[in-house]
């Protein structure tokens, strides 16, 4: 599955349209963000996470999307279910992001 790049213009409508979403917030100057990019892309194609929409947001260019998750450091990952924030955390550890995805996948639809 592809990773979609969203901005303030389309963030809210996309988050609300999909049942389960994970967002990676990044900045162009963030080295850890760049290092995590291929891992995030690989995770988006992992069959365990079928049904999860994978999204990236440039935190410096999209302040409203950044506020929606309470981004305080980069890279920052947030999961949303039915348009509502489930969890947000600043990390560069793949195993933590996998845990967030597994937690999101285990939630039943409301």
What's the short version?
By secondary structure, the protein is an alpha/beta fold.
Structure notes:
By secondary structure, this protein is α/β, with parallel strands linked by helices. It has four helices and five strands. It has a single domain (4-106), classed as Glutaredoxin (3-Layer(aba) Sandwich), CATH 3.40.30. The chain has helices at 11-17, 31-44, 63-69, 94-106, and strands at residues 4-6, 20-26, 52-58, 76-81, 84-90. The protein starts with a strand and ends with a helix. The mean pLDDT is 95.
Radius of gyration, in Å, reads 12 Å
Q: How many DSSP-defined strands? A: 5
* Order of neighbouring strands in the sheet with most strands: 1-3-2-4-5
Structural class from helices and strands?
alpha/beta
Tell me, briefly, the overall form: globular
Instruction: Count helical runs.
Output: 4
CATH superfamily: Glutaredoxin
Largest sheet: 5 strands, mixed
Mean pLDDT: 95
Classify the helix fraction into a percent range.
25-40%
Q: Encode the helix/strand succession as letters.
A: EHEHEHEEH
User: What fraction of the residues are assigned to beta strands by DSSP?
Assistant: 25-35%
Number of structural units classed as domains: 1
Q: Please write the CATH class name.
A: Alpha Beta
Q: Based on the structure given, which CATH architecture is correct?
A: 3-Layer(aba) Sandwich
The first-to-last residue Cα distance is 24 Å
